[in-house]
Amino acid sequence: MRINNRIADLRIDHDLTQQQIADLLHCQREVYRRYEKGDRELPLWAAVQLAEYYNVSIDYLLGLSSQKRHFRDCRKLDL
User: Fold this and answer.
1) % of the chain residues with pLDDT over 70
2) How distant is the alpha carbon of residue 8 from its chain centre?
3) DSSP symbol at 71
4) How far is the C-alpha of 64 from the C-alpha of 28, rounded, in Å?
């Protein structure tokens, strides 16, 4: 799954509007709409902010994993 589909699905699953997420990211709704459509690349800072907001891993958000590991779990390092 591509990131634009994943962020749209997460937003819909949380019963949020594009405007609410645009406000969270401090951008215009049209800019966020383009992220969801795949017309514009989602910046890394926005991906991190959305992963934290939805409490999912960056891997999940990027479509690299099907597991919704919690965002904070991903910050732990096994050294």
Assistant:
1) 89
2) 8
3) H
4) 28
